[in-house]
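Could you show me some protein's one-letter sequence and the numbers that encode its backbone in two labelled lines?

___
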Amino acid sequence: MTKSWTLDDMPSQKGRTILITGTGGLAVEDALALAQAGGDVIIAGRNPIKGADAVRRIKEKAPQASVTLEVVDLASLVSIEALGKRLKETRDHIDVLINNAGVMTPPTRETTKDGFELQFGTNYLGHFALTGHLLPLLMRAQGSRVVTLSSIAVRSANVAINFDDLQAERSYKPMPVYSQSKLACLMLAFELQRRSEAAGWGVTSIAAHPGISRTDLLHNGPGRRSAQGFLRSFMWFLFQPVAQGALPTLFAATSPKARGGGYYGPDKLGETRGHPAEAQIPRQAMEKQAAHRLWEISETLTEISFNAQVSPSELTGLNSTTVRREG
């Protein structure tokens, strides 16, 4: 990209339905920008009070915004399935799904309601399951996109999917486990694009990361008294504003220049800050065999098959749409 992309470059989102996971930080900035561009925005999070406050703050800044709240706990497969069912009953389609919400570096190992390690279960498996449940709605939209957030934490050469201890039951170290969950998210984005192309789902999958931004994650995970919390509180000048950190996600979700299977992050200071640009893809994320294995394991753990979500009539309808576009 020769010119720095900003919100002024965002196309109109009128007529588009967009679901964003999370009720703070990047999610609110995404929702505000997309609603101001005319999108019908759904924010989805586990805390109804925090979610309602996020909706209120967005509408204060953009009174005409179409933004609603759906309650979902990404640490619960039952809750994710319930959200998928509600949306299928109330929505005709979804144009964009932004897999944004996350948990970062709790000091001791915790688990989800289904017994998964909390970071892997929430950041990755929860979004894997949500994407699977919403696949039929995404297929009904023309030019639908799934944007999955990763992190610059995956760039370390030591980060890998530990298939021998996927749930960190034998050894739990907060940052390596967080990095693994975000590597899994990046591999999800790439594998979803490959499978969509092979199966004709018509869904474009893109990854993004926000660089280093002033979100609540560092405080909510290890706490304010941790090393990370100290950096966030007292060295705030190292972190770019959340609105700036949201730009790569918004570029991936809306720009005609964002390509399927792409990965976007900030363009300055080692991808820690700046405007959207192609991000460096770590070698581990490009291992197709590992991505295939992770996908198969994920379908088993979540008990959701993406192929089973696609009815013959939906696939036929998609193929007809594709023919009309090309013809």
